[in-house]
């Protein structure tokens, strides 16, 4: 079996708590709070005002720029106000507040389970429909999908890499999605191939999901140009550049995008959303997320309408155990601790991990012993010990020279450090500062 060639670690996957738990819909909230920033890029601009009646799937905020995404109402009811709400870390964000009344959908949305395999749209029409549906990458980056399908002049896509890896420990929502909606995902793959004008797609799945490999291989055998590539376990194989290397043995240059080597990468959840948008006229109003942890009463995979308070989802999972020491948004490697569980679920929420007090304790950092393990583990070929030190010293120019913007925040360096150095913490902070400097420089 294949894997990527630079760095990587092998954390315990801890997926047994929620693996194979059937996707369960979370009841509608009484009030929905829909953030206007659920994607990389400019915030969406509201199209509704206080007192407006809305239906599920109605466009309520339009993309605020080329790199931005539309937002549709995930509920039906009355717009209560447009104000600010707190995110998972207590920061204010613009949002639309809706008082939920029933569950009335836009009439053009097909809500049946009938599999629609025939797409008669042309490539440009597919991309436009994906754009109108507000679809973004649901693997975590939330990059607007229609932008990814419009490569710059001179760049030609050759292969679609389908990300079914889900290498982040604990999370199982993508795995379950492949098991329950493999046929829809396969149709979505064909739609994206048509949009890109290519005839080859590779589905990468790690070997700890043998049933998903079997399911998708069976479906791919009836689909021209699509194959499944089983992969050895190695974190962070779900990263775009690592997955490209694992599947087609091409390495994306520093600072470049996957299209530079002829690849386009999309997550299975994103592709399922593409199927629903193109074949069912359904915009992106919900997603599957994992709620899990060793002490969680009902860990599982939950279908959540955007705008639903995370507290409602946690209640579905049996509530927050008394032993909880920390709640992580996402998985333990790339996720971040949250201080606000009243925050609304959104396109970014792949999971909530409840760690008990013993698990959430941080070991006391010690002096660096110059072992080089962080360098060996970095999948981007960086020097984490150096970047961390430069960040501590606020040497931003030097951080940029040492390619800090190539860091994918995977946490391999911090995971492997025998001295418990908070390497990722410093690198993240420095990367944010350097990124701001680069953007300011570009605007001059």
What can you tell me about this protein's structure?
This protein has helices spanning 123-132, 145-148, 173-196, 210-220, 240-248, 268-280, 310-316, 357-360, 373-377, 384-392, 396-401, 412-416, 423-442; strands at 24-25, 31-35, 45-46, 53-54, 59-62, 71-72, 77-86, 92-100, 159-163, 201-206, 226-231, 263-267, 286-292, 300-305, 324-329, 336-337, 351-356. By secondary structure, the chain is an alpha/beta fold. Among the domains are: 123-280, Rossmann fold, CATH 3.40.50; 373-442, no CATH class. The mean pLDDT is 96.
CATH structural fold name of the domain at 123-280: Rossmann fold
The N- and C-terminal alpha carbons lie at a distance of 49 Å
Report the top-level CATH class of the domain at 123-280.
Alpha Beta
Instruction: Give start-end ranges of low-pLDDT stretches.
Output: none
Strand content: 15-25%
Reported for the largest beta sheet, the result is:
6 strands, mixed
Shape: globular
- The count of β-strands is 17
Helix run count: 13
What structural category characterises the helix and strand content?
alpha/beta
Mean pLDDT: 96
Helix content: 25-40%
**Radius of gyration from the CA trace?**
21 Å
Find the CATH superfamily of the domain at 123-280: NADH-ubiquinone oxidoreductase 51kDa subunit
CATH architecture of the domain at 123-280: 3-Layer(aba) Sandwich
